[in-house]
Fold:
Amino acid sequence: MLRQPGGTLASTHLTHLRHVDLAVPEHDRQLAFYTDIWGLTRTVGDTGISFLAAQGSPEQFVVRLRKAPEKRLDLLAFGIAAREDVDALAERLAADEVRLVSEPDVLSTPGGGYGFRFFDVDGRTVEVSSNVTPREHRRIEAAESIPVRLSHVVLNSPDIAVTTAWYQQHLGFRLTDTMHSPQDGDLMHFLRINPQHHSLAFSKGPHTSLHHASFELRGLDEYLRASGRAIRSGATKLWGPGRHKAGDNAFTYFLDPHGNTVEYTTEMEQVDEDTWHPHIYDASQADVTDQWGTANPWDEQVAKESINDPDHGCFIAPPL
Structure:
């Protein structure tokens, strides 16, 4: 257990990011993008709902698509070590007056497991689960340009200091690095729950929304091949290819059919917990956003698309 600012005990047993669930008006169009272009595999589905896996990941699915009248982030899901940790976290969140969406129970999604849902400080639905049956997966081979796994998710928040503190206090996230502007203050906080530089980040924005979801490729060659496939498909390339300084990962950002930003990435930095000290990076320096200097400039259009539409699903639990 780790004592966080404010004196609250936070679990250190969150293990990894499981999946990101999206609601969209045009389910079939979105499904075609994520399978035919992006490289995910539909494993389970019915009319208006699909579970999409990454071939290299033991997770049953890394994206869930649900048909809905308007787009929203349905939920963000994380793994936790054991069933007793699920119960302990639910009990502690309830004691801290965090609004629970559901009590711990057996899950009905692919792979089952045991988990519960709750609202974070901005009203997003979060799921934590354990004992999910691993999916049969395989090694992604050289030159195979499909995602290995879901890498990380970045979320827009009007007050990233408050949101970051909430995730540190209640879920045990650690601050890895900060992106800072001399004019506008902190722009992004990168948070980790394992040695990966970040599984989650919060970006300063005018409203709560999805900033981007990122998918890991096998290596640089596979990342470039995947980026090229998406470009040739006619998908809107937003930014990249390039290499960030925070996380040291390669990036190319695209828009999916509903205007959500999705990223191909690879070679994310791994953190040594015993020696790591958070950096504060100056976002006004060109080599901070792109070390290679190969990406198109970060401009107002890229910023606008990254802000995304306001999420009207805050403090409204998804029906599934």
Observations:
- Residues 1-12 have pLDDT under 50 and may be disordered.
- The chain has two domains: 9-130, 149-307.
